[in-house]
Amino acid sequence: MHFAELLLRWYDQHARVLPWRGIHNAYHTWVSETMLQQTRVETVLAYFDRFIRRFPTVEALAAAPEDEVLKMWEGLGYYRRARNLHKGAQQVVAEHGGVIPSDVKELLKISGIGEYTAGAIASIAYDQAVPAVDGNVIRVVSRVKGIRENVGIPSVKRRIAQEAAALVPQSRPGDFNQAMMDLGATICVPGTPSCERCPVSALCDAYREGDAEDIPELPRKNPPRVIDYDLCLIFNGDRVLMRQRTETMLQGLWVYPMVEDHHTVKQLPALVKRKIGLPVTDIQTAGEAKHIFTHQVWQMKLYIMHTTAEAPAGWRFVTMEEMQQLTIPTAVKKAKEVVLNYE
Ligand code: SF4
After folding, report:
1. CATH number assigned to the domain comprising residue 107
2. Does the N-terminal or the C-terminal CB of the chain have fewer CB atoms within 10 Å?
């Protein structure tokens, strides 16, 4: 029996039941696949329903203000995905009359749609026999085909993409791609796979050779940069100082002032005056927090301080009610809790 037949037979019995499955809706596929990048299925489940209820169509998403889109994404992380999805929806409305294209080449021109998402939309929503190659599929294909070179090498990547494309059947390509994702997520997992339960073990090179644990050879990652910050919760009466980030990382999200490195309580007033332009008094420590991003680790010491001055340019004093409406990154969630619990 062929690879696709074996895999689809397994999928018919074991497919994970997910709300974005079983319907041909390119918008749902786009939203779910965007959310699933770097986020676990269990987490996405709650967000997907809420997001689709709030923005039921690509037109509704395109018409929404960015702040609202970010708010619906709050806690999912990697906010660039949400901003690109939003931009992409506007592009679909402006350039395609609100109809998401079915052709991979056209899909790739849309903001936020890369090779993987294009393949997922074309195959799942439009039944096109194209692959959708993500990390799971790279792992499955390199094991099945016995590709033992480092998958970070461009020529190896191309070979995996070709092998993946050759496996996709003409009939049920969308189910096939989802079956590959499920296989990679539940059986052909990183480290030690459960080959004894695998529907395609008879066709798997790594299984025959007994070296699945060593495949794929992954590109070496640089360790994340550890940055120390003093996070300053500056109160003016019952309002707290915040700003909306313009930097690429966490763009559009609201944060409190942060100064790099750790300092003593004595050093902070002069530093805050110099960096933020505010005179502050009554500094108290308010605990510590740590947040791990892909490329950075923030080690934060939290301080509460007070001022009677107005907010400097680019900053705003917000009330607690206003703060609840803003999209605040998980990285500074602890700081938000400190503010909310401060009497
Ligand atoms: S036999 Fe093992 S290594 Fe091969 S595809 Fe199945 S789970 Fe992965």
Report:
1. 1.10.340.30
2. C
Which DSSP symbol is given to 238? Answer: T
Sequence-ordered list of residues with C-beta below 8 angstroms from that of 221, at least 6 positions apart, any chain: none
Q: Reply yes or no on whether 322 is catalytic.
A: no
Q: Is residue 220 part of a domain?
A: no
Same domain, 18 and 76: yes
Q: Is the CB of 144 under 6 A from ligand 1?
A: yes
Predicted confidence at residue 23, as pLDDT, reads 82
What's the domain range around 322? 225-341
- Tell me, using a 6 A CB cutoff, whether residue 195 lines ligand 1: yes
268 and 303 in contact (C-beta within 8 Å)? yes
**pLDDT value at residue 1:** 66
If asked whether residues 84 and 150 sit together in one domain, one would say: yes
Boundary (domain end) residue, out of 159, 192, 214: 214
* Buried residues in 150-162 as b, exposed as e (16+ CB within 10 A): ebeeeebbebbbe
| Of the candidates 124, 140, 134, the residue with the CA atom closest to the CA atom of residue 178 | 124
Interval 188-244: pLDDT, tens: 999 999 999 999 999 999 999 999 999 998 887 788 899 999 999 999 999 999 999
Of the residues 207, 208, 214, which should be mutated to test ligand 1's pocket, given the most ligand atoms within 8 Å of the CB?
Answer: 207
278 within domain boundaries? yes
pTM, rounded to two decimals: 0.79
Q: How far is CA 183 from CA 11, 19, 55, 198, in A?
A: 9, 18, 31, 8
Could you tell me if the CB of 207 is within 6 A of ligand 1?
yes
What is the dihedral sign for C-alpha 220, 140, 101, 73? negative
Asked whether the beta carbons of 273 and 279 are under 8 A apart, the reply is yes
What number does the ligand 1 atom closest to the CA of 212 have? 3
Would you state the structure tokens that stand for residue 202, as one six-digit string? 């008879």
Q: What is the mean pLDDT of each run of 10 residues along the chain (343 residues)?
A: 93 91 92 92 93 97 96 91 97 97 97 95 97 95 96 93 96 96 94 96 94 90 91 96 93 94 95 95 96 92 96 96 93 94 85
